[in-house]
Each structure stands twice: as C-alpha cells, then as structure tokens.
Specification:
The protein contains five helices and 13 strands. It is α+β, with helices and mostly antiparallel strands. It has a single domain, classed as tt1808, chain A (Alpha-Beta Complex), CATH 3.90.1570. It starts with a helix and ends in a 10-residue tail after the last helix.
Length: about 180
Amino acid sequence: MSPTEYLAWERTQRDKHQLLNGEVYASAGGSPRHNRLCARILARLDDALRGSSCGSFSSDQKVFIPSTKNFVYPDATVVCGPVELHAGTTDVIDNPRVVVEVLSKSTEQHDRGDKWEDYRSVPSLTDYVLVSQRLPRLEHFARESDGSWRYRAVAAGGRLELTTGTVLVVDEIFEGALDLPGDV
C-alpha cells in the first residue's frame, strides 16, 4: 500500500494500523503491565514538560518516518516547539523529539532493529527510550551533537535524564507494574 493509500484508508478504520515498508499491520492492544508502564512514562513526561515549549503525546499519535515513508504509533512521543504535521495530514507528526517504546515479546526485535534504524532518520529525534517489561530497566539512546548516538541503560534505583531535561526514575515508573500480567 502506498503512503497516500494508507493515510486515506487508515482514517476510515476503527482500529490503529501501522504502515511498515508498504505493508499494513494492526496495532494490538497491550497487556495490563504494558499499559501501566506507558501510563507512568506519559505521566512523568507530561508533569516534567508542563510550562515548557515541549508537550507529550500518547500512543494514539501517529509519527512519520522519512527514510522509509513508514507511519508508526510510538507508545509515547514528545514534541518541542510547534507541532509539524506531515504534508496533507492533520494527524501525523513529522518532528518528534523523544520517542518511547515499551518492549513486548512480539515487538522487541522490531523495536531494537528496523524500527530503531527508522527512528534514527528523523532529524528532530534526540532521545529513544526502550522500557523493559521483564525487569525494572530503561534503555536510552541520545543523539550527540555530531549526530552519533550514546547508549545508556539504567536499572532499579537508577535515574535517566533526557535531552529535554526530563528525569525518569526507574523505581517510580516500575512501582507495582511488574506485579501485573505482562507480555514478556
């Protein structure tokens, strides 16, 4: 399916679908653990960004990947400054600054592989955060001034600072979440 065909079709659908390399994939709902982790991340982002030029968006926000012309729904997205919409759309963001993906058994390989490669092509992206469902762990890729990416992982007791200045505290995000059923 072409990007134009996908956008027209997707707007008529009840459920969310991603376009990946010309193929359409349904976006399945998450487990209670996945959804709790998404909610906690989004709450922390929203609280930390209040009053700044940045704002957070939930997993209902579609993002365009320029290198592959893919359309994806990250678990959480941050945009700083004005939202730039993809040409001809009212619902697709071109300028995410932070993208967060909560890993699951069915998505982890893609989130670490092709999807991560795709996200690196987004000029505005400075932070890519992966959230484990198996253990209290956040992984962070931050774009350096020379365009390279720095990797850091933090576990229980750790704190992660994004380029926006937002601090994510592992213990706060994971409190009680691992007690819920998850897709691990």
